[in-house]
Amino acid sequence: MKKVSILGATGSIGTSTIDVLNRYPEKFAVRAVTAYSNVQKLADAAKKTNAEVAVIGDAKLFGELQEALNARQLKTIAKAGEKAIVEEAADPDAEIVVGAIVGAAGIASTFASAKAGKRLLLANKESVVCGGRLLMDTIKAHGAQLLPVDSEHNAVFQCLESASEKMRQSHRIILTASGGPFRKRMDLSTVTVEEATHHPNWSMGKKITVDSATLMNKGLEVIEARWLFDTPEDRIDVVVHPQSIIHSMVQYEDGVVLAQLGAPDMRNTIAYCLGYPERLNAGVKPLDFSSIHGLTFEKPDTKRFPQLAYAYEALRRGGCSCIMLNAVNEIAVENFLKGKIRFIDIPKICEVMMLSASEHAPKSLEDVLEADKEARILTQEYISGYTGE
Ligand SMILES: NC(=O)C1=CN([C@@H]2O[C@H](COP(=O)(O)OP(=O)(O)OC[C@H]3O[C@@H](n4cnc5c(N)ncnc54)[C@H](OP(=O)(O)O)[C@@H]3O)[C@@H](O)[C@H]2O)C=CC1
Ligand SMILES: CC(=O)[C@@H](O)[C@H](O)COP(=O)(O)O
Ligand SMILES: [Mn+2]
């Protein structure tokens, strides 16, 4: 029996993880479930998983969480505060940690799991984008194991599995992108929050869905791939594949391409990571090729969606550029979701703000967190005086 902790248990990935775990009660038990503010959903997650511990990130909600657990007659121990989440990420009782917090809020817990030598099933791409080489070194130094949950990186991981060290040195990564809801829309100036939060193929949280619509998600994934697979950015390509059936590909020296295909349902990816190296059935309907009427491919349009180009640029610039771009994007998306800026302002703000990143690469987790914090303050100040011109 393996013990699992789910950080971000109330979100889209968290919910899918619980769904998969509940298919295998004989293989897995749950140590902890965490959330930030959604107390009722967290208590429901504790009930569904029979978790030993439930942690709410917002410390003010401790009493409410305790009540919600009592109301469900659970023995689950209530904890609260961001520090408690980080402690659970490293708790010796959990063998597997699922990192499904959204945004840079997941950085500290990802590092904590890495330092504790966990098997880390990581969906939180922002912690790879910001932690970069430092995170990969930390994982190595502490004997942790990172299994990528992000569908593209999981696909690449599977395509690289049988590759020798030599083959790995010459591979190219081809990340597929759906192109988002505005792939064919020429005028982006009137995009609404409602439109930007509906992905054509995947059901996901709001932040990543907006990122898919701007192609920032693909940009973050290029950075993520750079570090996860130790592949320089000039060997990472992006191709638009609107059907989201090929999850990504690897091309070897002889030109041959391996691809991983599946239904666009994250339960497959999560099950792969939970069972690794065994394969677990997530209960997702397998692909029916006779009902697929074509797999198509296009070049990404970086004129309409420049965020993808900014990600490559941030990698080339180095220093704290990726941390900066990630933080600026998070603040811009937050403001867009609140109706304070337009969809087309998101890349405009990123373009300006990413230039103020420090050229010194972070040397510690504290440096990463400090750079992220500063970037947020600067961006919020910039947006406060922003007129859109
Ligand atoms: N959804 C998907 O299919 C995919 C997601 N990913 C990545 O996985 C991560 C999670 O995405 P997704 O599940 O869609 O996101 P959701 O918005 O659905 O869920 C986010 C989770 O994080 C918690 N959370 C939010 N803010 C904080 C905070 N400050 N401290 C602690 N916990 C916090 C939320 O708690 P609460 O509910 O209380 O707010 C919730 O449990 C992201 O990094 C995303 O890019 C990658 C590939 C696919
Ligand atoms: C499911 C997943 O991994 C998402 O990152 C998804 O790939 C988003 O789709 P886009 O290709 O539109 O960014
Ligand atoms: Mn993805």
UniProtKB/TrEMBL annotation:
PANTHER family: 1-DEOXY-D-XYLULOSE 5-PHOSPHATE REDUCTOISOMERASE, 1-DEOXY-D-XYLULOSE 5-PHOSPHATE REDUCTOISOMERASE, CHLOROPLASTIC
Organism: Turicimonas muris
The reaction(s) this protein catalyses: 2-C-methyl-D-erythritol 4-phosphate + NADP(+) = 1-deoxy-D-xylulose 5-phosphate + NADPH + H(+)
GO molecular function, a single term: 1-deoxy-D-xylulose-5-phosphate reductoisomerase activity
Family annotation (NCBIfam families): Dxr, PRK12464.1
Assigned keywords, A-Z: Isomerase, Isoprene biosynthesis, Magnesium, Manganese, Metal-binding, NADP, Oxidoreductase
Primary gene name: dxr
EC code: 1.1.1.267
Pathways per UniProt: Isoprenoid biosynthesis; isopentenyl diphosphate biosynthesis via DXP pathway; isopentenyl diphosphate from 1-deoxy-D-xylulose 5-phosphate: step 1/6
Residues given in the record as Mn(2+) binding sites: D150, E152, E221
Domain 1-deoxy-D-xylulose 5-phosphate reductoisomerase C-terminal per the UniProt entry, residue ranges: 146-229
Listed cofactors: Mg(2+); Mn(2+)
DXP reductoisomerase C-terminal domain residues: 261-376
Matches recorded under InterPro entries: DXP_reductoisomerase, DXP_reductoisomerase_C, DXP_reductoisomerase_N, DXPR_C, DXPR_C_sf, NAD(P)-bd_dom_sf
Name of this protein: 1-deoxy-D-xylulose 5-phosphate reductoisomerase
Family classification: Belongs to the DXR family.
